[in-house]
Amino acid sequence: METIINFFSNFVLGQDYINGLVLIGLIIVNIFLGSMDAWINNTWDKEKLVKGIKRGFSIAVATLATYVLGGFIPDVLVMTVNEVEVTLVTAISVAITAGLIWYGKEVVVKIKNAIGGKTV
User: Fold this and answer.
1) Where do the domains of the chain lie?
2) Mind listing the pLDDT tens digit for each residue in 13-50?
3) Which of 4, 28, 84, 89 could in theory staple to 70 by disulfide, Cβ–Cβ 3.0 to 4.6 A?
4) What is the DSSP letter of 79?
């Protein structure tokens, strides 16, 4: 019982949880900026918007589910990289970080394009 309590305490208060919420936020902002750009340029496509929402929702649900399920088996290894053992939770944490980097870049590029900035 203590293991379950510790798991949920770490899940609710942990940095991975915060990173996951930020990732969901960046996905939403990315979809919003893409939609606004398309609307302003008269290229808005409802089907493309729905696909983007479904994709973002699917990514968020799959990531959360995998993270939660991996927390129930903390000693099971998913892979070994350069003699470093990686658990499912660690692998998902890395995937969340990669998602933050990718979606963060996408949002910054869309904001830059909206204000007419140039990439150096």
Assistant:
1) 2-115
2) 577 778 888 888 999 999 999 888 888 888 888 898 89
3) 89
4) E
